[in-house]
Amino acid sequence: MKKIIERINEEMIKAFTKAGYDAEFAKATLSNRPDLCEYQCNGAMAAAKRYKKAPILIANDVVSALSQSNVFSEVNAVNPGFINLRLHPEFLASYLRAMQADENLSVEKVKNPKTIMIDYGGANVAKPLHVGHLRSAIIGESIKRMGRFLGHHMIGDVHLGDWGLQMGLIITELKKRQPDLVYFDETYEGEYPKEAPFTISELEEIYPTANAYAKEHPEFKEEAMHATYLLQKGSRGYVALWHHILEVSIADLKKNYSNLDVTFDLWKKESDAQPYIPEMVQYMKDNGYAHLDDGALVVDVKEETDTKEIPPCMILKSDGASLYNTTDLATIVERMKLFHPDEIIYVVDKRQELYFTQVFRCARKTKLVEEDTELKFLGFGTMNGKDGKPFKTRDGGVMRLERLLSEINEEMYKKIIENHEIDPDEARKTAEIVALSAIKYGDLSNQASKDYIFDVDRFTSFEGNTGPYILYTIVRIKSILNRYQGLGKKLGEEIIGIPWNESEKAMMLEIVKFNQVMETAYEELAPHKICSYIYDLANAFNRFYHETKILSEEDEKKRAGWIQLLVLTKDVLENCIQVLGFSSPERM
């Protein structure tokens, strides 16, 4: 289904052509003065130079050509040459009816769907999720859902960190605590136990203890580095322990991501890329892409147009060890081989931009990706506390994600219980839904690249630009629809009619932006644009609601038309929040 701006521009093209002017000038836009008009066209100003004619005269000619238009109810030429446009009520209503009849609510699926991999999450095995993991998970999930809504084949990959020194530290600390475990017996040839010799709580305590100890005791760190080496070389006992670490950690990570309503199609790990490294390194050497620099193997990625220094991309350290660069490049090799993506999007901290510039350039220069494969970096800012510093617990520690969710769930539960008589179990379930909207909307309503203040009081408010306010609006619409059905009426008995007042038309004008917003938000990887849209739509609905006696309207046809308009408003809002990664309760 065509966007409404496309329909408007078609009408403007006919008018410009009829008036004797080139169609290239016939472009309308949303008005920046909604008090004067709804859409505007400034093409007469641009045409003035070519036709050597005053822009107001050109504008008058176009206005005259639009005199019989059924798209506009009002068209005016205004000095020095603006064309102000107001949509015809029947044209607007008919567009909304077509939206409602469309299974995708006017959003056209892409004609040539792409296979797009999205790398988000990025948690480390054996470490709990903390607030630092929140933005990647929330933004990445919304981008994935946006792409799917438009018809792309989106593949989400958590890309776990599981192959570095932290594994050696855990193994070495475990050996210090329980030296008699069978995994440390080099002569053992039997089957290893199926149960892990630690719980997730113990595992999450082991790593920070080992890491802190290694900083003070070089000999312990040396032993951990050797354990990492043995693991990567395939030591049977260490590999068995590593599998236990993965099993226990991933089960816990899946539970925590599930609480965020974040899912991944792939649970790939750094270790999955390791088999591709030797061949990739040899390929880079054989084709002259890589060279030695102070003993390290590097690929030069600097370009003539660079205005700042871009260091070479290091592939192997002087001792032959691989790095994150190596693993990320090998992961690209793996992804190209297994999935042949048209695009790979990385949702990571914006402070890693230089690193990914090196990796992307290296992948292109060495032809690890096809010429038309896009590599995109979506860098996000920091989530800060009210003091402007990275969000912490009250005692200054890094806040676990599980604890943050629990605290906001509790806050929402208190608010719901205080304001409504409701069954405690239902209140708990509702609180979880609303709390998730508070967290996700609070994050996504900010431009991804910007730092923002995580203000629990503001984010959990039912007023203002918040997730709870959006949900409260949807629940209000559901309540009206339920009460209408309670009168013995059926939804869909009438069609959306022409607007009867300004607030109704203003709401209609917001609804018709839906398809444009969804496309633009995905093209720009900008979920905050969807948040901005639904906030405007929610405000427009609430203004209409307060100015209009919907259920008590005596004109049955008018009332039924309003009900249909509310059904469409609810459907649009619910599609938007689903794409953003949360849902609405039945009541609040």
CATH topological fold name of the largest domain? Isoleucyl-tRNA Synthetase, Domain 1
Mean of pLDDT? 95
The DSSP helix count reads 21
Strand content is: 5-15%
Question: What proportion of the residues is helical, as a percent range?
Answer: 40-55%
Give me the side-by-side strand order of the main sheet: 1-2-4-3
CATH architect. name of the largest domain: Orthogonal Bundle
Count of structural domains: 4
Q: Roughly how many Å is the radius of gyration? A: 29 Å
**Can you identify the CATH superfamily of the largest domain?**
Isoleucyl-tRNA Synthetase, Domain 1
Q: Structural class of the secondary elements?
A: alpha/beta
Question: Can you describe this structure?
Answer:
The structure is a single chain. The protein is of the alpha/beta class. The chain folds into 4 domains: 84 residues, Arginyl tRNA synthetase N-terminal domain (Gyrase A, domain 2), CATH 3.30.1360; 95 residues, no CATH class; 112 residues, HUPs (Rossmann fold); 173 residues, Isoleucyl-tRNA Synthetase, Domain 1 (Orthogonal Bundle), CATH 1.10.730.10. The protein contains 21 helices and 13 strands. The strands form 4 sheets. Strands 1-2-4-3 form a 4-stranded antiparallel beta sheet. It has a 4-stranded parallel beta sheet with strand order 6-5-10-11, with helices on both faces. The radius of gyration is 29 Å and the shape is globular. 40% of the residues are buried.
